Structures are given as structure tokens and as C-alpha cells.
Amino acid sequence: MANEIIHYIKSNRRGPLVAALKFDLNKTYDRLKWDFIEAVLRQVCFLELWISIIMKCMTTASYSILINGKP
Predict the structure, then answer these.
(1) Of 29, 20, 23, residue with least CA distance to 41
(2) 11 belongs to a structural domain
(3) What is the rounded distance in angstroms from the CA atom of residue 45 to the CA atom of residue 14?
(4) Which of 45, 36, 41, 2 lies closest to 20 in space, CA to CA?
(5) Domain range for 55
(6) Residue 8 included in any domain
(7) CB 38 within 8 A of CB 55
């Protein structure tokens, strides 16, 4: 699914600048602590809003992201 989204973004360059983030969380929980990931996001100057969103996604059992009110 991530590859399809990236392809769509690359092929539709008519609109505003778009950014995409892909996190591979495969076995992340076995190797990294959540507070370490949060510290790294702050170190690379992510906005607090994005840090909050990412941390909520990582620390909850289920989640969905809404874009313009739609899943």
C-alpha cells in the first residue's frame, strides 16, 4: 500500500507540495524503546504535532488516520 501511495504522489505533481513518511515498525518493539524513538523525533526537529501523532500510533493497539475527515 505504501508503494501505491508513493507512486500516486510522484505521478500527481500538479497540486501543492506533498510529503509522505513510511515507518517500518516490524520488530521495532523488540529493539527500541518508545521514549528513545520520541527523543530521536525531537532531535531531528519533527513538529510536536507529528511527534504526538506518531507516538499515539505506536503506543495504541489500533489506530486509523483521517485525512480531511475520511479514513
Answers:
(1) 23
(2) no
(3) 28
(4) 2
(5) 24-61
(6) no
(7) yes
